[in-house]
Amino acid sequence: MRFGFSETESERISDGGRLSLTSPLSIPSPKAEIQWVPLQNHPLFSSTADTAGDSRMPRNLMVWDGASRLYFWDSNKKCLHRISIRLGEPDPASILAASPSKVLQTDAPVSFNVDKILVNRNGSAFLLAGLEGLCVMYLYGRSSVEENTIICRTVSIGSEIYFNRNNYIRTLQISWHPCSDTHLGILSSDSVFRIFDLSSALERPEQEYYLQPVEPGSSCKAASICPVDFAFGGDHLWDRFSVFILFSDGSIYILCPIVPFGSVHKWESVLEIYNDAHTFGMNSSNLKAVNNSNLAISWLEATFPELARQAGEGGNLFAIKAQPYVLFDASVSLQGPLRNVYHRLGEDSEVQRGVCEGRAVSFLYNLVSKDSILVTAWSGGQLQIDALADEIQPVWKVGSAPRVCVDSYDHILGVAMICESVTPGSSVLKFDQPQNHTAWLGHPPPLLRLAIVDLALPKKNDLLISMIVDPIVGERIYCLHDEGIDSIVLHFLPFTSQASGKEEPMKTPSVHAVLSTCSGKSSRSSPLHGFLTFSDSFGSSWVMGLTASRECILLQMETWNLLLTHTTEKEGSPVRFEELKEMDTHTIISKELLAGPKAVILPPSAPNLRSVTADSIEGRATLHQYFKLFHENYVEYAHKVYFELQHHAPHLKKIIDNQHSRLRKAQQKLLEVEKKQEKVESRIERAVQLHNSLEERLHNLKSLSVLHKKPLSKAEQDFKSELDRFAGVEMDALHSSIEALNARLRRHVHSPQTNFSNQQKQKSGRMASRVQEDEVSQLKSSLAKLSLLNSENTQKVKLVESALKNRDISD
Q: Could you give the CA distance from residue 440 to residue 85 in angstroms, rounded to a whole number?
């Protein structure tokens, strides 16, 4: 049984506790009655075309708050719909939704097309993101309610940085920080990662990290300096203070430590990495490891002052708040690019690169137990799945001071720094390298390649792929692309498998198609405009997709037996037919019954048994003993057989029905094959005829005289090359010279003479006329010579061509 408030009661309670007191004369307007309908049949998801914002940015106009509310952005009406849902009702495979939905309207008009909506951790604020704008919509703190519509406060973010027409910078990826309700991370096309604090400043970032993946002055490809995507780390050691940056060439970098000012973290988690720095860093014999761990400890004690006070006492805190702090003489290093780790030396570099094609388009960080999984999607349709083979550790570059903004009380308000990549030499990483050789030395954590999954997508230059993790089964990753949705399940995790104490071989992940958006008659796909995953406390999981025409698709996903693998067939030991037959027989009837009744061991008889009559006491006792033995063996065996047959009758009927259905399908397929056989034979006949005609044409072409002509002699080849050179180069030069001379002549003829007197004009006119006549005569003679030379060359070319034709005819 489920308990909860109704839609109207929950809205009235969430309205800040305000009650509407009406007089007897004023009657409140009746509200629409709440109806619970299946989610896919909700009136909001009708067949209405939604073509607004047709961009190549991946669209996701739906979001779930993790509890009982679904939000959908209406691109036509520019508003947000809030839908209350009930998971697993009335049956485990369905979801109920309340109708009508509550409409949340922005207090200021949204002037851009929204492509993505995101909700923060506590569900109090929504992020509306598009190519031309970015704003935050606060759900609680509305100003008024009119006609079942809630007016919500909406503010713009970073408009002077990202959407200034004089300095246009594109936002590549936007995400809420997992440890804060007010901090937002933005990666932009100017290779800068910024963190905004919505509680203090909307236009000025709290932290700025200028990414510099290559050394200044070094040559590199353009793809190696173009960021694509980023992701915050998970709740594991230093991963919670890390940001993963993906570049267009597929290289991955790490920024650590990155902590929003005022974010809240678990006391046990921070204390664990604090003790780890003391144990493995300060006690190391390497001086570099001691210095790096000392920087980390000082940073932790300044960011979380409770550590220094209560670490030794074993404080009973549950959560601690991060204080604004930055090292004034060091900047955070850009760790990377992350290299692959190998089991042995001599591995080919192509193994590290893999078979991924195109450019990197998206990135996913997934934490499963103790394994940090990194998934990179490529425009060629491949997924590169790697795992961190070592723990992340913070790295600073000492001597590169950041820029810090403080207030009048010397409190840090903002920080900006240049993050340079520090490559730790060209040493080959080994998988079995001891921990004391790598801990706290400033090396980026290596990657262990798990798999490269080819989704077999059509080749497109603008292919976009987005990924999301299943909320119940962390090993399952949903991949959303233009062709639909695929499910990738990981069956091997290095640290998780190692912790189980079993040496398991590396298994390839399984790939399943969940949903296809291609129509049956046409290969044209219709990408989804929304994709969500739901889960409840009973372990059920659903996926929901929204098409461009607002058609809702809801599917229940398997969770319990997802990670179970079939062990009947092992690599290198195929199962024989006799074993399969034995396994099938065992499932139908037991071996004990197939062996028959047990052999009856008769008791020893007396020597005078033949002389004893059946009516006597001894005879009756002997017969009774024999009947008892036969009853215990044969009659009880018959009862067992009868019971077993009765028990297996439904199972046998099911097997027979299954065999009959398979037989009918096979017969139907045979009929279809017979129908298609005639078409195939006709096509083969047409192909044979076409092949014969092509062979005949090829024979005729081989018999042509052109193929038997003799090659030109050396003199003929020299003459031909001279003609080609003259026709290709010198003729163009002559034409350009003639045009230049004609232009000079026209300009000289039409030039006015205004700076002389009339007499001088007459005298100079006569002199000029004579000069012009001389020049004109020279030009005419030059043109005549050129035309004569051209005609002679033309005649020579014609003579050569006629001679070649006559030679071909004679041959």
A: 49
Quote the CA–CA distance of 551 and 572 in Å, as a whole number. Answer: 48
Chain segment 457-487, per-residue pLDDT in tens: 887 767 789 999 998 888 999 999 888 899 9
In the block, tokens 């308000």 appear at 413
Query: What is the spatial distance between Cα 174 and Cα 669, in angstroms, rounded to a whole number?
Result: 52
Mean of per-residue pLDDT scores for the chain: 78
Q: In the 3-class helix/strand/coil scheme, how is 58-85 assigned residue by residue?
A: CCECEEECCCCEEEEEECCCCEEEEEEE
- What is the Cα–Cα distance from 384 to 360, expressed in whole angstroms? 10
Whether the predicted pLDDT of 734 surpasses 80: no
Q: Is there a cis peptide before residue 90, judged by omega within 30 degrees of 0?
A: yes
Q: Show the DSSP H helices in 615-705 as ranges.
A: 617-630, 636-702
For residue 418, the tally of other CB atoms under 10 A from its CB is 17
How far, in Å, CA of 1 to CA of 4, rounded? Answer: 10
Joined tokens for residue 783: 């043109």
What lies within 8 Å, CB to CB, of 123 at 6+ separation is 65, 66, 67, 69, 139
Q: Enumerate the H helices of 338-489 as residue ranges.
A: 349-353
Q: Tokens 């800068």 correspond to what residue?
A: 192
Helices (H), 515-635: 577-588, 591-594, 617-630
Nearest CA to 137 among 122, 148, 149, 151? 151
List 454's β-bridge partners, or say none. Answer: 382
Structure tokens at 71: 């939000």
Tokens 């520019």 label which residue? 78
| Model pLDDT for residues 293-313, shown as the tens digit of each residue | 999 999 999 999 988 877 556
Amino acid present at 35: Q
**∠ CA 431-467-68, rounded to 5°:** 125
Cβ–Cβ under 8 Å, residues 446 and 340: yes
Quick one: which of 215, 168, 169 has its CA closest to 194? 169
Crossing angle of helices 714-725/758-810, nearest 10°? 150
Place of tokens 């992940």: 509
Nearest to 174 by CA among 244, 230, 136, 114: 230
The Cα–Cα gap between 804 and 807 comes to: 5
CA distance linking residue 751 with residue 323, whole number of Å:
82
- Comparing CA positions, the residue from 461, 451, 488 lying closest to residue 473 is 488
Query: What CA–CA distance (Å, rounded) separates 762 from 767?
Result: 9
In order of 58, 340, 378, 429, the CA distances from 344 in angstroms are: 40, 12, 28, 9
Cis bond before residue 100 (omega within 30° of 0)? yes
H or E element in which residue 13 lies? helix 7-13
Strand order in the sheet with 371-378: 360-368, 371-378, 382-388, 447-454
* CB 367 within 8 Å of CB 474: yes
What b/e sequence results for 683-719 when a residue is b if at least 16 CB atoms lie within 10 Å of its CB, and e otherwise?
eeeeeeeeeeeeeeeeeeeeeeeeeeeeeeeeeeeee
N-term to C-term CA, the chain: 101
Cβ-count burial of 294 within 10 angstroms (0-12 exposed, 13-18 middle, 19+ buried)?
middle
Distance of CA 230 to the CA centre of its chain: 12
At residue 92's C-alpha, the angle toward residues 86 and 94, to 5°, is: 55
- Residue 227, preceding peptide bond in cis (omega within 30° of 0): no
Asked whether 305 and 311 are in contact (CB, 8 A), the reply is: no
Q: Whole-angstrom Cα distance, residue 464 to residue 27?
A: 54
**How many other C-beta atoms are found inside a 10 Å radius of the C-beta of residue 469?**
19
DSSP 307-357: HHHHTTTT---SEEEPPP---TTEEE-EE-PPPBPBSSS---HHHHHTT--
- Give the dihedral sign, CA 638/639/643/644: negative
Determine the length of the chain.
811
- pTM summary value: 0.66
Q: What pLDDT is stored for residue 207 in this prediction?
A: 96
pLDDT of residue 568: 34
